Amino acid sequence: MRFPNQRLAQLFAMLQNETLPQDELAQRLSVSTRTVRADIAALNMLLTPHGAQFTLSRGNGYQLKIDDPARYQSLQTQQSPALARGPRTSQERIHYLLARFLTSAFSLKLEDLADEWFVSRATLQNDMADVREHLLRYHLTLETRPRHGMKLFGGEMAIRACLTDLLWTLAQQEPSHPLIVSTTLNTEVSQRLQSLLPDIFSHCQIRLTDEGELFLRLYCAVAVRRIREGYPLSECVAEEVDEKVRHAAHEIAELLQQLADKPLSEPEVSWLKVHIAARQVQEIAPSAINADDEEALVRYILNFINTQYNYNLLNDKQLHADLLTHIKTMITRVRYQIMIPNPLLENIKQHYPMAWDMTLAAISSWGKYTPYTISENEIGFLVLHIGVGLERSYNIGYQRQPQVLLVCDAGNAMVRMIEAVLARKYPQIEIARTLTLRDYEARDSIVEDFVISTARIGEKDKPVIMIAPFPTDYQLEQIGKLVLVDRTRPWMLDKYFDASHFRIVEGEIDQQTLFKTLCDQLHEEGFVDAAFLDSVIEREAIVSTLLGDGIALPHALGLLAKKTVVIRYSRHRGLPGVTKRRTLFFYSPSAKVNMKRRWPSTIFSSLSCANAP
User: Fold this and answer.
1) Which of these, 34, 193, 271, 342, has the minimum number of CB atoms within 10 Å of its CB?
2) 480 with 539, same domain?
3) Does 341 fall in a domain?
4) What is the helix, strand, coil percentage profile of the chain, to 5?
5) Does the pLDDT at position 472 exceed 90?
6) Are residues 167 and 222 in contact, defined by beta-carbon separation less than 8 angstroms?
7) pLDDT tens column, 519-557
8) Residue 352 is part of which domain span?
9) Residue 214: which region, alpha, beta or left (left: phi > 0; alpha: psi -120 to 50)?
């Protein structure tokens, strides 16, 4: 089905698998809510022949209602409209131009491309400035030959890196982008790599993020195409890698050799080792990493921040371990000029401005003593670690509340950043575990209270909230519905109240005996010291704490308790000398017959103590 404009296609994709209110849709599409309502009406007109409609559910938002599953399934199996058209926007034209120049063995004329994509030559000429700038980052150049057109020149490793980065960026935005599934890569090769590579990594015990695995899969597909076309690598590198990485690289090389139907050279295997080593997830324990350079850089950064900005993060073991695991692979990347995209760089600068300044200053100072050049993308990942460390060390109030399972398809830095965002917004959340998408799908059940995921996943008897790496207000509100509404009250009751602190007094008792009984219990449980009883008696002698209606609230003169707690004693006949009575209702969950029992009673003592803030 063709949509009249791109916004309708985006709106249809958003609402296919989740329910969203019009405010959230308007924010994502950068339009007004009135435009959203008009677009929904237009979509419903298009979907009516296919047995589906978007309906508004009050309090939830727009959701897809399928009246005829057979007709709707036929719509789903139709060819994507993106596959049948050329680039429309300037950004799309830049992507298509890059892909053409990177994969063409001959010179290309803008006139031919303009005719193919139904645009003017002047339009493509304007886009060429951005194309040249992008290629220059990889030390690639375009040379113009009279009557032949333009041809790309540069190293084979740079061409592969540029093409892989381009496809990886497009895959993050749209996994079924035509440049990935039909134009640039062989579909059969991509499918075989997708099914076989995870088994190789699992067999060799190599941990990768979902993004890292996707990048390696795209690189292997690009390598197969280039080898088939007669462009093997000739630059050999000598990188010391783990035995597991070496074993995985040789297994992948055998697979690529079968797919390309050509023998692989030693440089191909060497670069596979480098790419795997640069993207594998290291163990969190720093004792497993024996690299003096990485340890020295971590100490240098933390000492620089402590000296120049007076923020002491040297004792943060979690930050030290996270930086160590990240910097080890980062050094491998910068040593061989392997560029890794950072799509959240601008958001990182916006959300962590102070951490950005600190990290940038530390890296710039360290750069005087090293031949490596660290890009802004790499600095951005370091900023996430530093920013989270600052929040962890200089913000208090973390409370244990609901157990949450985090499913994140990004790296360790992104996980720490999401944890910091959740802790800042909902400090009572505790991240019990963090899993990749593949690990989550492999589990049969979930023991945590609910799941927060950065990718679309299915529910496993527990609610699932999908969020962006930098969650929107709507997404945080959805998390809040599970955190605050469902669990805040039981948590507060458990914190300040206990079943052993609720008693009914039988028989005769005077005020002094009651105070001594209560204070002795608090003293035995470690809430107060021996001086608390005298303070309560002194406070009661000054002015009675009887509040009326048979309720008294005795307490100490000062904040003498070690922890806030409430004890409630009640007596049916009241305390001698207190004649005012009141009828109260008591609800007991253990009383199965008479759930609402009427007791003529007087709550004559509710002793409470509060600790200092």
Assistant:
1) 34
2) no
3) yes
4) 55, 15, 35
5) no
6) yes
7) 888 888 888 888 888 888 888 888 777 665 666 777 777
8) 286-393
9) alpha
